[in-house]
Amino acid sequence: MTDILLIALLAFLGAAAAGLLGALVLRLSRHRSLAVSLSVVAAVAVTAMLAGTLAVARAMFLSPHDLTVVTTVVAMAAVVSLVTAMLLGRWVAARSRDLTLAARSFGDGGTFAAPEAPATAELAALTRELAVTSTKLDASRARERALETSRRELVAWISHDLRTPLAGLRAMSEALEDGMAVDSGRYLRQIRTEVDRMNDMVGDLFELSRIHAGSLTLSPTRISARDLVGDALAGADPLAREHGVRLVGDRVEAVPVEVDGKEMSRVLGNLLINAIRLTPADGTVAVAAHRTGGGVVLSVTDGCGGIPEEELPRVFDTGWRGSHARTPPAGAGLGLAIVRGIVEAHAGRAEVRNVTGGCCFEVTLPPA
């Protein structure tokens, strides 16, 4: 029993010495290729076995011939182990290089194409994750391009919409100044109308900038959806009468909601104004409110004739307009973007879908 313990101790000491030396080499070569690390690991394993074997053989006083035989056997094992480790290291390193090149391609703006050569389970898992990341980046780039297009269109449209009334204001003010205005009262009323329109536009821009900057502060209170819709209908009634549109609000349930009354009134006001302006005379704009499993749904249904299916995903984008017109009532394309921003600030969502003869805008709010 004592001999066995002594042999185990000598073998452990020899292997420990080889292991410590191998750990030092691994630390020094930690920034080198994986093939080098695998070769070092194989060399450590063989060296540890050789060191332990030689220590035990010397303690057992083996003959020189027997010691040579043992050393030769260990040396052959070392050669095979090192060759195997080097081949494995080169294979893994090659797969890593292929994966690096593939990752570089989609990092530069392309699409990730997974290497066709087989790889280890870890590299295969990394490949799958990179493929998922590539898909997300493609979607993000598409959204960024769409947003950039919307920003450019918004700048162009806002510039036009501001320049047009400014030119008219300048012409009318010069006519009044030179005494050339036949009906000065009409000029003054037109000036006030244009100023009001520009003020509304600037107000929308300010509201949208607050939403995008995340500085929109809400003061939620518990309010009935019926009261909220009633106030919005009362505010939109004069515009509806002017356009010959009938407002209907007989499907509004008295369900409670926890919202900022002022901001949510703006949401319904924007939806109603758009619906009234796009609905033909003698048409109907219907407002409804009901409770669902996911919260409270407020909807505005118009008679605009519907929105092209390819345009539905862009309805709430900044700068989107229902037509290419640059004059009222097309607006600056900010109203629906403001609607979505305010609704999302309330942890809700805004959606649109086509219905028979028009479209239906739905605002879903969390239950109170």
Spatial order of the strands in the main sheet? 2-4-5-7-6
Secondary structure class reads: alpha+beta
**Cα distance, first to last residue?**
80 Å
Compute the CA-based radius of gyration.
38 Å
Topology, number of strands: 7
Main sheet characteristics: 5 strands, mixed
Net shape: elongated
* Unreliable sequence segments: 324-330
Write a structural description.
The chain has 368 residues and is an alpha+beta fold. It has helices at residues 2-28, 34-59, 64-107, 121-177, 184-213, 225-243, 261-278, 335-345; strands at 221-224, 246-252, 256-259, 284-292, 295-301, 349-355, 358-365. The strands form two sheets. The chain has a five-stranded mixed beta sheet with strand order 2-4-5-7-6. Strands 1-3 form a two-stranded antiparallel ribbon. Helix 2 (34-59) packs antiparallel against helix 3 and helix 4 (121-177) runs antiparallel to helix 5. The model is unreliable at 324-330 (pLDDT under 50).
